[in-house]
Design goal:
This protein is of the alpha/beta class. It has 2 domains: 151 residues, Alpha/beta knot (3-Layer(aba) Sandwich); 57 residues, tRNA(m1g37)methyltransferase, domain 2 (Trp Operon Repressor, Chain A). The protein contains 7 helices and 9 strands; from the N terminus they run E-H-E-E-E-H-E-H-E-H-E-H-H-E-E-H. The chain has a 5-stranded parallel β-sheet with strand order 2-1-6-5-7. Strands 3-4 form a two-stranded antiparallel sheet. Strands 8-9 form a two-stranded antiparallel sheet. The chain is elongated. It binds adenine. Adenine binds next to strand 5.
Length: 224
Amino acid sequence: MRIDILTLFPEMFVGPLTESIVKRGREKGLIDIQCHDIRDYTKNKHKKVDDYAFSGGAGMVMTIQPIADLIEKLKAEREYDEIIYVTPDGETLNQGIANRLSLKGNLMILCGHYKGVDQRIRDHYITKEISIGDFVLTGGELAAAVIVDSVIRLIPGVISDETSALTDSFQDGLLAPPVYTRPAEYNGWKVPDILLSGDEKKIEAWKEEQAYQRTKERRPDLLK
Ligand code: ADE
């Protein structure tokens, strides 16, 4: 999978996209992530990339020209399955969206700043708008990093234990059950007996019941 990220702040991706699982996926050649600095494409002699809103009010709007030129350049190089704009008024990210995006070949992600991008960019280039929740961030960069992380860990081979991603919370519509590891007793705190019984069938049933109970208590909305 190839992901192109269009941003005014490429440095914001250095941590999230150069460590841990994302790093491993890149090293294995399973994902190719490229960050592009929108400012490099402005034809404005002062390197300006924003301007006042025609509608007035506080806050600047990102101008069309640098973004359009960058999108056109990338589109001439390859076909994109989705051109995503991250914005609080997009569809809220969930596991289903992450699953579907993980099956794609080439994605572009545009990060907005200030009051956002000129609406005409959204009308003419964007195929999908995603929010990561009902709160407002300083810009789309952290949201884009969240989306990339949630998507690439689903690509086969990125996580070493392949079944691991399948047993995550939400993957079967339920939260994940509690987990324990050695020692079986610490400070008098004991692991549930059933997990030490060796009875795989009973353990599986226990996990399903725990997942269901946890979901019922914490996220009853998921059971509807
Ligand atoms: N940009 C600012 N806030 C955002 C959010 N919640 N989701 C996606 N992009 C954003």
